[in-house]
Design goal:
By secondary structure, the chain is of the alpha+beta class. The chain has helices at residues 8-24, 29-35, 40-48, 68-80, 88-101, 105-117, 232-268, 280-308, 314-338, 349-357, 367-377, and strands spanning 122-125, 141-145, 148-159, 166-172, 182-188, 194-199, 210-221, 225-226, 270-271, 274-275. It is built from 11 helices and 10 strands. The radius of gyration is 21 Å and the shape is globular.
């Protein structure tokens, strides 16, 4: 189905993103997967060509454009290039709303220029070893001591955790206040007591650094509190819909990438004297997958419009997130099956994409949590 979401400016930007990935990422990504991390210079180059800082005011080095379609294009092209190691999506889609919308002028001056240029890499630390989707179960604590908070605790599964210069940490600042007792503190790279654990060995997303973080009596200046003290949980809830929509855009784009590769394979691979795509079973499977990808893309494009209009609900984003990520995993699995034994070989794109996609139904809130959100929205 013809897409009607983008205009000519978006099309030109898409060309620039694709060219950047072709030049700076694709030739090196296999090595980054072996290394388990993307070099910092790539971030700086991404900032130089305008891939970072959408929504950051021009006075701080950003584009000043509050248009998620540009973020969506970056996400789609990263998926199309199968550049799964880039944590740029996290920086643009997840972190930006916090550093743009919740910071004061002094904080903006300190952080946003480096954020937009790629010199400052960011992360957000919510998940703890004993706490997954239940954010109210967070135990990391920050006790006020004069002009600072003393932060203790640990976090895990933190994207950009090794490279990050700034980490937004969700911590309890008032244990007696329940959901009203959480705050958001920005921990900077060289703060004493802030240590990184191992770069975690994951099933997929091999080039993306994902780490454990430890905080032992870290003195975080009160000037590094973002948003309102005690309203951290509210700030998270306000920003999670965009994060979940971001994941949905990647899920649809990843599914489309693998479907395209599988279509080409089914046209070329022969069995019993003819291309396997000409067998009815193959045609029917591919027809189903093409339909699902298109339906997912149509819903996500509509959700992006609603986000731009300020009308995307928590339930809308949850629906987009759970359905598209489950769809993506179905597409990956069935496309791998159509490849036969070659689908199990890592040199084929479908094998790595299948591994990378599995996390989508987990991070950003599991499918089960998304369904719970939707169910509550139905008054159940």
């Amino acid at each position: 189905m013809k897409r009607e979401l983008f205009d000519s400016d978006h099309d030109l930007f898409r060309e620039a993103v694709a060219e950047f990935l072709k030049r700076e990422v694709t030739p090196f990504h296999d090595q980054w997967e072996k290394d388990g991390i993307v070099p910092r210079e790539v971030w700086v180059e991404a900032g130089r060509v305008g891939l970072l800082g959408h929504g950051v005011p021009e006075e701080y080095g950003g584009t000043g454009l509050h248009d998620f379609r540009y973020n969506q294009i970056v996400n789609e092209e990263i998926c199309r290039a199968h550049a799964s190691g880039l944590g740029i999506t996290l920086q643009n889609d997840v972190i930006a709303p916090y550093l743009v919308g919740l910071t004061d002028t002094e904080q903006k001056r300190r952080w946003l220029p480096g954020f937009a240029s790629g010199e400052l890499i960011t992360a957000i630390a919510m998940t703890e070893p004993g706490t997954g989707s239940d954010l109210q179960g967070i135990t990391a604590s920050a006790v006020r001591d004069g002009d600072a908070f003393v932060l203790n605790g640990s976090k895990t599964f933190i994207t950009n955790g090794i490279n990050a210069d700034l980490v937004i940490v969700v911590a309890q600042t008032d244990p007696e206040a329940g959901a009203q007792g959480f705050s958001l503190l920005v921990v900077e790279r060289d703060m004493p007591g802030f240590d990184r654990g191992r770069n975690l060995d994951k099933i997929g997303l091999k080039a993306q650094d994902t780490a454990e973080l430890f905080f032992d009596d870290v003195r975080v200046p009160a000037a590094n509190l973002i948003g309102t003290e005690g309203r951290g949980f509210v700030h998270l809830m306000e920003n999670l819909p965009q994060e979940r929509l971001s994941i949905a855009t990647c899920a649809v784009a990843s599914a489309a990438f693998v479907l395209d590769h599988t279509l080409a394979y089914c046209r070329e691979r022969t069995a019993f004297g003819r291309p396997i795509g000409r067998f009815q079973n193959s045609r029917f499977v591919l027809a189903e997958l093409a339909t699902e990808v298109d339906l997912g893309r149509t819903y996500v494009d509509r959700a992006v419009r609603l986000l731009h209009q300020g009308e995307l609900t928590v339930e809308d984003a949850a629906m987009a997130k759970w359905w598209t990520t489950e769809m993506c995993n179905r597409v990956m699995d069935r496309c791998l099956q159509l490849h036969g034994g070659y689908g199990y070989m890592m040199e084929y794109p479908v094998a790595r994409a299948w591994q990378d996609a599995r996390i989508q139904t987990i991070y950003g809130g599991t499918t089960e949590i998304m369904k719970e959100i939707v169910g509550r929205g139905l008054g159940l």
